Structures are given as C-alpha cells and as structure tokens.
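Bit of a strange request maybe. I'm writing a small parser for structure token strings and I need a real example to test against, not something I typed by hand. Could someone generate the tokens for this chain?
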Amino acid sequence: MKYAFKKVRRIIINDLATKKHKVTLNDLKNFKINGSQDTVYAEGQDGAKLAAFDVNKVASISAENGSVDEGYLALQVGSEVVKVTNGSSILIREEFPIQDGDTSVVLSYKATGATGNEVRFIYKADSNGLPGDNYTQNATASETEFAYAPDTKTITLPTDVFHAGDTVIVDYYPKFSEYEEIANDANKFSMTGEIIVDAWFTDLCTEADVPLQLYQPKGKISGTIDLSAGDQAAVQSIEIESLTRACVGDSKNLWILRKYDLSKAEA
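Reply from user aminoacidic:
Good idea to test on real output. This should exercise your parser:
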C-alpha cells in the first residue's frame, strides 16, 4: 500500500514510570521523523571493503508547536509547573502622570514587604520615560523621601519634587492569591517520557484517511530552548530522541509505527 503522510494531530507525553499524562502538544505546524546509523567497514588490501557492519542506530522526532506550552517548557528544564499560593514574587510597575496640585498617587494593589519599607523606592521618569531620580520610603514625606499608607495604598510624594507634566514610576510587589511558576535550576535537566504521536496517512488509491500512531517507549526531551518574539509570535521547537529501555524483558524498540482501523476496535 502507498500512503501520503498527511497530518499530525498531537504529541502526548506521559510519565515514564506511572504513565500519567504530562503534556499534550496539539498546535503542531510541522513534524519530522529522523533516523540514522553509522556503517563500519572491514577493509582488505588497498582499502578494499570486505564487509559492512551497521552500528550506532539513532532515531528521533522533531516538530514546531505554534503555541508555547508551559508543560513542555517545564519538561525541557527538568521542572514542574508549580502553583504558588499567597505569593509576592511578581513585580508590578505603575506610572502616574502628575497634574497641577497632585501631592499623592494611589497604587492599584497593596504593596507587600517589611512594615515601613513596602515600596522601598519611587522614581521620577527621565526624558525617555525610564526611571530616573529615586526617592526612598519613610514614615513621613520630605524633600528626599515619600510615605506609604498600606490601608489606602496611597503614596505621599516627596515635597516640592514632582510637578505638572512629571511622571511617577513605582515598582512594587503585591500579594497574589495564586500564580504559576517554572523554575530553571542549574542542577536539573530535561526529562524523559513515554511519547505517543497521533497522525493521519492518506491512502493514495482510495483517498481515505488512515489513522496511525507513532510510539516511543522512551523519549529524551531536548533541553535546547529558543523562544524568539518580535514581528512574529514565537514557536516552540520540539525535539525528542528515542532511547532503549534497559530493564529485564524490555524490547530494543526505538519507536513503533502502528496503522489501525477504528471499525475493528471492540465496542
């Protein structure tokens, strides 16, 4: 039979030991099955090749995902997507244009930190709109310091410093009920998982779509990350190398390609 390799629907990655789902990638722009091997020759006189032996067989899959999947990114850095509750590690920057008579500004969120030093600094924007002259927090405002009232989120500006047309820049850390984070630690590396690829062939004689499944019993996820944002949205590069399992009774399969017909599945 002859087929056209039509489309990849998704890549499913499961935990290698428990088979629990880790990631599903379903915004795939392209997909490739890669494979190679080295050939070693036994040579005779004058370099005549007497025999050939194949060694170092390798296989992998590669793709590009049109969206950035946080779960796959976590697998690349050897981490998990962790839900943080009541955390205050996210910096918020707010900018306040000053009008005539303004002596204070009100933050959108309550700043966290040591009592009396929740905000720490405010800045007067320079000619480029970036933080320029800085002022420190104190219990009361002065010519060089500002005051912050946590109950009302009000910053009392330094006296006779900010005038109409100026901009106050405030960097601070509010408390979030929850957020998610991925930690890229120097001593943790990309993970290994069970890989299942759902795809379609097209029968060149009947034009019928034929489902297929590529199975990698053990796939090493590449830790190479290249997310570039600019005039186009970033794509996520996927590269997974096939490994053989080393336990007693395990096969030497790098991958298995299965073509099937759902009408023959037991209902």
